[in-house]
Specification:
about 250 residues; alpha+beta; Arc Repressor Mutant, subunit A; 2 domains; globular
Amino acid sequence: MQAMSNNGDIRQEFLKALGRPFLGDELFDGIADTVFFLKDHRGRYVAVNQTLVARCGVKAKDDLIGRTAREVFSAPLGERIADQDERVIAGARSISGQLERHLYPGGKEGWCLTWKEPLSDGRGRVVGLSGISRDLINPTAVQSDTAALSQVLDHIRDNLDAPLHLADLAARAGLTVYQFDSRIRALFGLSAGQYVTRARIELACNRLRRTTDPIARVAQDCGYADQAAFTRQFRKSVGLTPLAYRRVGRPV
């Protein structure tokens, strides 16, 4: 407990010395292929980087602050982003490397990987989210393949409580198992099987941090019929048992 107290003191001393809030946007200003943003509990931009400013065709960051995705982007993109924000905030559930199609200035279409993380106050209440979207640069991927692959990744995220067989997933994407695995490796640096396992463990971490559901229920909702098997995989991936992770991960 003493170490945790000292860490808190160090953080407070640093922020006091800084003399202003640090929102992180400056760090991402020079990264042309990555959009960075913070949003409040209503999905309104609180901080953005220069990349997002340029892509929205506005002059300054202040032109985006206080606006929602629905107000910044035309439909259907704005609606999709805003709906996604609302799900992250309401469900307190992270998004990790979601493959999405985006529109850029001039009508150009492209693909990106998006991460979003709910932000909580000291009482554990979600007060907003942070996120990045990184352009996908993969000249070997065919657009039709990428669109189909995106739909399969959505299917995985929506069905983590059900059996997910690689042959079935590959068929959904119109690919062989080898092709499907190769696409996943190119995007995420993981095999297809590892990607599914990571998605299940990430969901489990979220549930353990933010709910009081029994561990057996968490295991079942993450696709593990056997709690012992879930505990073994969780410990292998995270380094802690689910119970230990819950104890250190929940807000005080």
